[in-house]
Amino acid sequence: ELKVEQNPLFLSMQEGKNYTIYCNYSTTSDRLYWYRQDPGKSLESLFVLLSNGAVKQEGRLMASLDTKARLSTLHITAAVHDLSATYFCAVDIESGNTGKLIFGQGTTLQVKP
Amino acid sequence: DAEITQSPRHKITETGRQVTLACHQTWNHNNMFWYRQDLGHGLRLIHYSYGVQDTNKGEVSDGYSVSRSNTEDLPLTLESAASSQTSVYFCASSPTVNYGYTFGSGTRLTVV
Q1: Is residue B39 less than 8 Å (CB to CB) from chain A?
Q2: Do B42 and A105 touch (CB under 8 A)?
Q3: How far is the alpha carbon of A107 from chain B, nearest alpha carbon, in Å?
Q4: How far apart are CA B108 and CA A5, in angstroms?
Q5: Within the 43-102 window of chain A, which residues sit less than 8 Å (CB to CB) from chain B?
Q6: Which chain B residue shows the shortest CA-CA distance from A42?
Q7: Of A12, A62, A92, B30, which residue has the fewest beta carbons closer than 10 angstroms?
Q8: To 10 degrees, the CA torsion angle through A38, A54, A70, B95?
Q9: Does A102 contact B50 at a Cβ distance shorter than 8 Å?
C-alpha cells in the first residue's frame, strides 16, 4: 500500500526553538514536495526536491531529501509565530514521475510566543 | 497575472442533486487535478487530466466525473450528491510532472 507518513502530526513549540518534521514514504519516487496550508486557506508550494541529496532553504525552513531512505525532513530554525500552519509533504504516486501526488496527513505546527 | 480560480467558494446542496464545481486556470498548464480534503484523510486524488480530451480516474473517483474540452478548464461534476461528498475540494495545475502544483483557493461543499 502506498503511504506517506508525517511525524509528528501536531507540534507545539516555543518561539526561538528548532525542530524537525519527518516525512517517510513508500513509493519509489525520486522527488518530493512540501506545501504549507494556513487555516481555511489553500495550499502553497514551499519546496520542490528533485533528486537524492537535494537540500533547499527558504528563510527559517530547510528541506532535504534522502531517496534511498525514502525520507524527507523539514527543519525549522528559531521558529516564529508566522510559521504556524499545517505542512504537507507529497510524492508521486508512481515511479516514472506521473505528476499524480499522494500527500501525507499533514503536520500542524503551532508556535507560541 | 496568471492564476487558478475555483467557483463557487461555498456551496450547499441537497442529496441527490447534480453539482458542478468549476476550475479555471490561465497558466496554460497541461496537467490539472482535483483533490478532496477531509479531516483524518488528508488530500485524496479524485480525477486528473494531462491535456485536452484526456481524463483519468484517481483514488476516490466514484460518484465524480470530469471533462476537459480546453486547456483552461476542468469542471468536476458530482452526478448525484451524497452526504459523504461533503468536503473541501481543491483544483490544482502544473506545467509538467517535474513541478509541484499550483492550487486553487478551494470550494467548500456541504451536502444536506
Answers
A1: no
A2: yes
A3: 11
A4: 26
A5: 43-45, 48, 50, 88, 90, 92-93, 97-102
A6: B105
A7: A12
A8: 60
A9: no
A51 chain-B contacts, CB cut-off 8 A: none
Give, for all 113 residues of chain A, the pLDDT tens digit: 788 999 999 999 999 999 999 999 998 888 899 999 999 999 999 999 988 889 999 999 999 999 999 999 999 999 999 999 999 999 988 766 778 899 999 999 999 98
Instruction: Determine what percent of chain B is predicted with pLDDT higher than 70.
Output: 100
Query: pLDDT digit string (tens) for B59-82?
Result: 999 999 999 999 999 999 999 999
* Residue A40 backbone class (left: φ over 0; alpha: ψ -120 to 50; beta: rest): left
Amino acid occupying residue A79:
A
